[in-house]
Amino acid sequence: MAALAAWAYLAAGHGGFWRTSPTDGEDFGECGGVPAGGWPDVVAVVPARDEAAVLPGTLPALLAQEYPGRFRVVLVDDGSTDGTAALAARLAAGAAVGLEVVAARERPAGWAGKVWAMSEGVRAADRSRPELVLFTDADIAYGPGAVAGLVRAAAVRDRDLVSRMALLSVATGWERAVVPAFVYFFAQLYPFRRVGRDGSRTAAAAGGCMLVRRAALERAGGLAAIGGALIDDVALGRLLKRSGARCELRLARDVVSRRPYPGLADLWAMVVRSAYHQLRYSPVLLAATVAGLAALYGVPPVAAVAGAAAGDGAAAVAGAAGWAVMAATQVPVLRFYGLSPVRAVALPLVAALYAVMTVDSARRHYTGRGGMWKGRTAVGRAAGG
């Protein structure tokens, strides 16, 4: 009954977290939502470390953006060893949008790798003093008018941060099992509607696509204020919102991740890299998270099956009802990804998998392998540290 009550609250009162709000076909009114002051200058900052494999499928789309104003791209080569910088320069030959490739300077102690690369991109972008900076990842491909759509959203809805959660790959069986749940759990932690509500304490962003007003970022203290953040998108969202910035986070189909996660090991690595960090490396929060997942996702199906087997009608009905509400809340995300709603019935098993991955994230932290990404620790250490 407690689990059923919890699911009733989540479905009815938790910011409508389960209701997807994709940006497809938005109506911005007259003139297609042209900003009142004209189209502002935009610079896209792309941190890239050993991204030669994905750049051919993403960078040309960014360099072909149909943006009516001034738009250029700064790609930050973050110590790549696979020819990322040279490949980017070749891909930019003849492109309509200008590309500047900069080499990241040595990362200072206490800075997370990606945030430092983002900061290096902002340093290069500041030479032209753009009004807007688009932080994006090397594996993200944009539809032809995606950047213009982001700028319209910022102008029409008066937002300092407009973020889009990229459409992730669901080509393989493991991706179809794990990825929709990843999006679902993220929305449950950070309900998108609450992120966009002024005065709400809920703040987050999706790191693959974050359009930020440069003035708002400077008012908040700049990227140095989150220099050590491993989860840079959530940290940036919190930094901006706490400074009074107005934010927006939604799903999108015209912002697409081209990074494949063909096997469970690839998805596992993605999750465990930051899961324990999100729990602030706290054993207490880890225990509470695992217990909460077990109670919320495990109790309803166990009660439904065990209650039916034991002839306990109340337990069986309450468990089945909780399970049904749980499954119903995942259906919109599954439909967004073009997957069968029947998959929602297996959400308790996927939640159990995420619980195991979270525990493994803690194990890796305590064995000195936490936060590893592309062969290095995520946060720089002082000499001798």
Automatic annotation (TrEMBL):
One of its GO terms (molecular function) is transferase activity. Keywords: Membrane, Transferase, Transmembrane, Transmembrane helix. This is N-glycosyltransferase. SUPFAM superfamilies: Nucleotide-diphospho-sugar transferases. The keyword Zinc does not apply. InterPro entries: Glyco_trans_2_hopen-assoc_HpnB, Nucleotide-diphossugar_trans. The chain crosses the membrane at residues 279-297, 303-324, 336-357.
